[in-house]
Amino acid sequence: MPILYILAGANGTGKTTYYLTAVQQGFISKDLPFLNIDFIIKNELGDFSAENIYRAENIFRQRASDLIKNRNDFMIESNLAQSNDYAWIEKLIRHGYEAVIYFMCTGDVNINVSRVQRRVKEGGHNIPVEIILHRYEVGLTYISGKMHLFKEAYLIDNSSDEVVVVAKVWDEKLVFAIHHLPRWADKILYITKRMQK
User: Fold this and answer.
1) How many Cβ atoms sit within 10 Å of the Cβ of residue 174?
2) Domain count, the chain
3) Backbone angles phi, psi at 106, to 5 degrees
4) Each residue of 56-110: pLDDT tens digit?
5) Which domain holds residue 121?
6) Model-wide pTM > 0.85
7) What CATH number corresponds to the domain at position 86?
8) Nearest-angstrom CA–CA distance, 97 and 4
9) What pairs with residue 153 in β-bridges?
10) Please, are residues 165 and 153 in contact by the beta-carbon 8 Å criterion?
């Protein structure tokens, strides 16, 4: 059964840094196709103009379509802050895919904002503060009600320099959680814990 791997979380959570480190350390295979709109723009199109964002989204969709048609495993990076994101995941599951998610978050959205601002100073692209705040809160709300979609779910706190897996859910069962869960992880797991009881 093919697998869709999802690296998710709001802007400034550290998804791309986590991915690059995980590939370097062999945790994620460098041969696993990785679809990331920012990577497409940066490596293939140039600057983060409105036109290039539109082009990158089309390239992303076409490559995903080809991978799905061939029933290949692949990984995407996403904010998962729209209902359409989950509709697409559900469509893939109906198509015979299993979904595995690595959901990253921080204990304070201001950490995300600061990281994006630092990225801009280093020449990266900007995301308005209000969009970061919106994606942070909405992303948590959506995933809390959609945990049942994932064969495996890993909740990862990236508030500091040390990345910490704070909980694991397999087949809708909470199989691991640290003693003092961050507030954001507790919010995600609320429905899962109630269903398990």
Assistant:
1) 16
2) 1
3) -120, 160
4) 999 999 999 999 999 999 999 999 999 999 999 999 999 999 999 999 999 999 9
5) 3-32+73-196
6) yes
7) 3.40.50.300
8) 7
9) 101, 169
10) no
